[in-house]
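Support reply, case 0932

Customer input (verbatim):
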Amino acid sequence: MAFDYGTKRTGIAVTDPGRLIATGLAGINTPALFTFIADFVKREPVTLFLVGYPLGLDGKPTHATEPVEVFLRGLAKRWPAIPRETADERFSSREAVRALVLSGVRKKARRDKHLVDEVSATLILQEYLENHAR
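Our regenerated output:
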C-alpha cells in the first residue's frame, strides 16, 4: 500500500498479490486517512506501507518532510507489525499530470487534485515494484 501524503489530500495505491502492477486506489482528504487505512487493512492483507518522501532537488528535506515523518510515526504506532519504507517522490506530481495528459484525460478532470494524488501514489509504487522485482 503506497501513499503520496499531503497535509490536505493523500493519494493511495496498491499492488496485486504478485507485486507486478500498481493500481490507484483513492485520493482522499488526509483527515480521514487513518480511518480509511484501518478499514482497508481489515479487508485486505497489507505487507508494506510505502510512503513518498519529499526531498528537494539537493536531496535535503523540505517543508513537506516533517508532516510525512509524523504520518510515518502514526503508521508505526497503529500498525507496528507492518513494515514501512519511504521512496523518493520528487517529480511524482508532475509525472502524474503528464501521465494523465498522455492517457487522454481531459483538462477538467486533470484539475481534480485527488486524482493527481492517486496517480502520483501509483507512480511511486510502480517505480518501487520495478526497482525491487524478485
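We compared this against your earlier run and they match. Two observations from our side: The radius of gyration is 14 Å. The chain has a mean pLDDT of 85. Please reopen the case if you see a mismatch on your end.
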